[in-house]
From TrEMBL:
It comes from the Bacteria. Residues 38-98 form the HTH tetR-type domain. Residues 61-80 bind DNA. Residues 1-20 are annotated as: Disordered. InterPro entries: Homeodomain-like_sf (IPR009057), HTH_TetR (IPR001647), Tet_transcr_reg_TetR-rel_C_sf (IPR036271), TetR_C (IPR011075). The keyword DNA-binding applies. This is DNA-binding transcriptional regulator, AcrR family. One of its GO terms (molecular function) is DNA binding. Residues 1-16 have a biased composition (Basic and acidic residues). Keywords: DNA-binding, Transcription, Transcription regulation.
Length: 239
């Protein structure tokens, strides 16, 4: 049981809140927030996301989030029912961050050149982070996917949102005639995401991007085997 839930059930006061914690009658999911309230909620999520990315879910305490966000325990209860509710918000936040960091390239993966640009972008992002942290939602999945079915569903939805533009781009290449009509673009898109996730894990562990390069390059090479005579010229991969 997380600390936020424990404090609520036992009626404890948080070290950062001198007022008794009282559960609101209206469920959190049904509440409507003002612009100021939405800004406060976003600040809490930002703080939690930063801490979870740095320390993991288990080592991120509610009190740490309160301090980083500059909010009281009563505010935490107002915006989030418990720690699981907060982590689900973090998953959504991190998913948006991942997609935004790859746009507009991610939404235009309908040529070999675009796939190369995306591959280069992914490697550059890891090098900018000095290969630290891995995948923001992949790391959460490894930690809690078997413990919380609601979070697992959110994580699966996040990965689907990531895979969808890859799948759509390859499908456009097939429809345009760049790939053979029998090309299984769904499987190739999934393979790219799998190579990316495995590459990010080994990049984080080994502190270099060699595995990420190898995984992505291997799948991109397989995609090229499906090219037709009408496909545009593809740049050569760095070896």
């Amino acid at each position: 049981m997380d600390q936020l839930t424990t404090d609520r059930e036992k009626g404890r006061r948080s070290p950062t809140d001198h007022q008794p914690v009282v559960a609101d009658a209206v469920p959190v999911a049904a509440r409507k927030f003002t612009a100021k309230g939405l800004a406060t909620r976003a600040r809490i999520i930002d703080a939690a996301a930063e801490l979870v990315f740095a320390h993991g879910v288990a080592r991120t305490a509610i009190e740490d989030v309160q301090r980083q966000a500059g909010v009281s325990a009563s505010q935490m209860y107002h915006y989030f029912a418990d720690k699981s509710d907060l982590i689900r918000a973090v998953i959504g936040h991190q998913t948006e961050g991942i997609l935004d960091a790859q746009r507009p390239v991610l939404d235009e993966l309908d040529s070999f050149a675009a796939l190369e640009r995306w591959r280069d972008l992914l490697i550059d992002l890891q090098e900018q982070r000095h290969c630290v942290g891995g995948c923001p939602i992949g790391s959460i999945a490894a930690e809690i996917a078997d413990q919380d079915p609601h979070s697992r569903a959110d994580l699966a939805a996040g990965f689907e949102r990531w895979e969808a533009p890859i799948r759509a781009g390859l499908a456009r290449m097939r429809a345009r005639g760049d790939l053979r009509p029998d090309t299984d673009t769904d499987t190739l898109a999934l393979a790219l995401l799998v190579a990316l996730q495995g590459g990010l894990l080994l990049t984080q562990t080994r502190r270099n991007t060699l595995a990420l390069r190898a995984g992505l390059d291997t799948v991109l090479a397989q995609i090229r085997t499906q090219a037709t005579d009408f496909a545009g010229t593809s740049p050569t991969l760095d070896q």
